[in-house]
Queue: 2 jobs
Job 1
Amino acid sequence: MLKRLRENKSAQGTLLISPTLIVMIGLLIIPLILTLIVSFGQRSPDGNVIYSFSLDNYIRLAGFSTDCTGGASFCFNPLYAQILWRSLALAFNTTVLVIALAYPLAYFIARAHPKRRTTFLFLVLIPLWTNFVIRVYAWMMLLRKEGVINIILGWIMGLLRIPFTPLEMLYTPGAVLVGMVYEFLPFMILPIYTSLEKIDNSLYEAAADLGANSIRTLLRVTLPLSMPGVVAGTILVFIPVMGTFIVSDILGGRQVILVGNLIQRQFLDARDPTFGSAASLILMVLTLIVTYFYTRKFGFGEEIVVA
Amino acid sequence: MASEFAVELRDVVKKFITPEGSEMAAVDHVTMQIRNGEFFSMLGSSGCGKTTSLRMIAGFEWPTEGDVYIEGKPMGHLPPFQRNVNTVFQSYALFQHMTVFQNVAFGLEMEGASKDEIARRVGRSLEMVQLTGMDRRRPRQLSGGQQQRVALARALVKTPDVLLLDEPLGALDLKLRKEMQLELKALQQQLGITFIYVTHDQEEALTMSDRIAVMSKGKIMQMGTSVEVYERPANRFVAEFIGESNFLEGKVKSVKGDQAVVDVPAWGEELIGIATGKVKAGDDVSVSIRPEKVRLTDKQGIKENSLEAVVTTSTYIGSDTHVYLDVRGQRFKVWEQNRISTLDPRAYYANGQKVWVTLLSENTLILPKA
Ligand SMILES: Nc1ncnc2c1ncn2[C@@H]1O[C@H](COP(=O)(O)OP(=O)(O)O)[C@@H](O)[C@H]1O
Ligand SMILES: [Mg+2]
């Protein structure tokens, strides 16, 4: 038995990945199948699942409803499509902003003296030691009507003798965007830093030697060579932003509902796991589609993940 | 061309701060003049300051003291792209995200050359290094030797006055290295531009160079043609670094012209030889005798410079036999050429065999110790 195992490379491989395989099957595949089954079910009046094969949840997600105002028997309200679209747009905006902020920072760290790099990377990671929720609450303290930003602004305006009414920043899409960008910045900085750090100094020198100034070196050499980091970071940021509900819950309140909030509320408040499951699956499919087209164009940033 | 010299280093010092925080001169008061169209090599062991010197010419580093002159003009803190020199990097430094064509075209695009001109010049450059037809490949898809050629083409396409090469053949295997040596030399002669070539391989430097600067610890030990540095090393360091030598310690008794008489206590002899550097009576010197310039005979030769010796080891290596001797208690090596094709073991010396060593004064070099 052992001897055969020693000779059989593929059996060795299977054995090696079996713990992962068990976890994946137990905690991913089976729950996924359960979600799929539940999503075709119906909610009983007391909030339980009636197993059936009904497309009601998906029809409802698409915006069609029989529960209409004005007595019509059938109506269309693209509420859920709007939520999905809003989530998609927010994830896109967050990712773009995060790249714009993370790239210069990662570049700065990668070009810093090797001794200082560790310190800077350390600083980037410090926020991650604090609980996610607490960090979002901190933003609430900043953005509130009576929050730190308004107090400081009011003080400055007072000095300038300009009348000032505190800004409504909390519970706006802008607040959610700021929170998301803040939360996910480190996940972009690190992969970009890794790919920048791997660019040999002699390549910058070669570019200078061949007549490129610093801007052209950045555009023609640095940026293309660090794309794997940007791609990896994009995947690490886009996918979680699509699904997260804490940031929008705390900073968006009832104003900014994302697909994550929708799902959460179906399970916890509305006690309709069937509709929640359907929404989860739609979110997953949507994320998969976006990721698929993105990675088909740019790859997974595997150079940085593998090398 | 305005100046007689393509590149000049005038009293250049480059200091670095070591990790321990102290100052260290990687290049220590170096002065050298490199003529137009010359194949000039900097030769020295690792860490002697060759790369640093080359980088100061390229403009990647600036001298702490002194200055670099290109075509007679002081370079000061001019950036690399404002100097008409180009570099072939030790690691090639090819852009992995570009094709061979794009790599070579990069420098021309930076000059703002037209598409037609770029295509024409890149084509010609790739032809020069025998890479025609490879222009669509990525550097990763090329062998080490081919990548080397791309690096060369990329630098040459800029038509620099001076090409700087930092151990360009270091990563290639021996056979390919020898081929490339000849090719580089031919290319340099065909183009007529100045090559400044850094290497730690003495054979490479001797084969390719018009002149060589032998460096040690940031200083130039000698500058001269291959023949000069081998046949007339300026001091013991050079004689030891280039080729092999027998060394004997001695004290100068008298000097006449370029000849000196040295008392060698180890042999209890006075030797006459050529003084290559400045020596005067009373100086401690090294006497250097190249092993291939000594004759072995069965009988005593000319009396005054014939010494009796015993063979301790004899190694047949094909073209030569390396004979290790004991000459009056001193180890001494002699390379005997195997001029006659024979199986007779006596032709190749046996251990314990008695022989006579004949030293000629024109092959005996009296060197300052520095
Ligand atoms: N950027 C640098 N910082 C500190 N020390 C350096 C730097 N570059 C080179 N050195 C030191 O200068 C000396 C000469 O280096 P180098 O010119 O690269 O030698 P070579 O090319 O002859 O091997 C070495 O001791 C090296 O450690
Ligand atoms: Mg070097």
Note: The pocket of adenosine-5'-diphosphate (ligand 1) is lined by residues B 16, 26, 44, 46-52 (CB under 6 Å).
Job 2
Amino acid sequence: MRPEKKSAGRVAYDRVLRALLYFCALLTCALLVLLIGYIFYRGLPNVTWQLLSTQESFRNDTIGILPNILSTLLLIFGTLLLVLPLGVGAAIYLTEYARNKRVVEVIEFATETLTGIPSILYGLVGMLFFCLALGWGSSIRAGILTLVIMTLPTIVRTTQESLKTVPQSYREASLGLGSGKWHMVRTVVLPCSVDGIVTGCILSIGRIVGESAALLYTAGSAGILSRNLLQALESSGGSLTVALYMYSMERGEIEVGFAIASILMILTLLINLSAKFLGAKLKKN
Amino acid sequence: MDTHETPVITAKGLELWYGSAQALRNVDIDIPERKVTALIGPSGCGKSTFLKTLDRMNDLVPGVTIKGSVRYRGQEIYSPEVDVTWLRKQIGMVFQKPNPFPMSIYDNIAYGPRTHGIRNKAKLDEIVEKSLRGAAIWDEVKDRLRKSALSLSGGQQQRVCIARALAVEPDVLLMDEATSALDPISTSKIEELIEDLKNSYTIVIVTHNMQQATRISDKCAFFLLGELIEYGDTDQMFSVPRDRRTEDYITGRFG
Ligand SMILES: Nc1ncnc2c1ncn2[C@@H]1O[C@H](COP(=O)(O)OP(=O)(O)O)[C@@H](O)[C@H]1O
Ligand SMILES: [Mg+2]
């Protein structure tokens, strides 16, 4: 049988559909570009060296967000430092070691559910437990631990997903050569799953950078430079998003808000790029 | 030739269940040293299962029960004091589908030696070359050892897998339908290779290809529904099979 020629109606239908899809894609891109462009347009002119390099001074009547930048970085790296080993370890245990499939299923369901919980609930629990019960008050360390709990399910899930895509035949090959289980996981399974782990990190960084409610409860909103790391961890520190909220909503400094928004976007971009770069590097070795 | 050579592997009364389904029934077999032993039989008869009992790869399958005895050079391999990693170093396995790691050719071959603690670069270089030569693929890959093993053709990948198995200097080599996924040219290369390898290794292959069994094996074992029906010299089995069912199978009347 010859392939029949498409009918005119069919051709028109294809065209319309394609145009619609094209329009959707275009609209998405346009919205994104407009939004980013607008924020940069309003924000970048207000990003001054003084803003970036000082803390707010009432005496000089100047605004500076260095403490907020540092708090944000501290929150991100502190959280990743704790959540990565914990989450990746849990994922490895669940996919590679756990024998009881029932228990694994229950845990997987739980992590799936936990990824969807509104962050303010984590903030509430974090405040009740870390700030009040443990008596830490509003502090970066309370913020970090709250974020660890909040991002743990994401890390566990994305890591698990990517561990599961590693072909069983690689595991067999490795064990067949006389590897122990952990050696097999470390030398074959983990290198193959670096991508997924990096994705998990990027998603988590996104959540951390974008978080405000949970942090307002736990890490507070202070914008004062600390003398050292330990002091910083123990004292209250508002993240950039919290500062953004404070300046634009409580104090009406809209332009500072836009400047912070620009910095947030650049920061996220930089961190995500370096995570990708690091992942590619790890994958090679 | 010594006709009373001591077997490398001896199975006695070997039974295996996947859950409640029995896959091996009372298998008795002696695998001779530096010979090629072929396992034949219709699919699902337990050839792969039997092969995997020899290096305890069945340990990975949940719900497996094993009874009876498998001895490797006199050592009961299912006894608790046996170190499985040691056993699997002695008994290498090549799988049906080529499964090189997503690493360079060099790193694939060096994987086993590194696992067993060899770090010296010169030593590793030497092992890699020797193993690749042993698997008759050195000339094809010597200029691209740093390239990914996944960039090779299926036949080359399978020989890299054989080289990877040889690199840990095993005593026994198990091959489960190692050529069934390959083209005829690669297949004949690997068959030639097996002929060579049997001078230094004890080899057990699973094949569903009768010609291949007659071409390269010295001993042949016919399995049916988990039972070892007949076991003997390949020449003899293919010319005067003792069991009616063997005859039916090798003449192509079933399976
Ligand atoms: N992992 C497994 N779980 C359950 N049953 C299995 C498993 N592997 C094999 N079997 C069953 O055991 C029998 C023998 O299989 P196998 O050893 O793969 O046969 P062959 O290699 O001869 O084709 C088959 O009935 C098969 O369905
Ligand atoms: Mg099979």
Note: The pocket of adenosine-5'-diphosphate (ligand 1) is lined by residues B 18, 21, 23, 41, 43-49, 61 (CB under 6 Å).
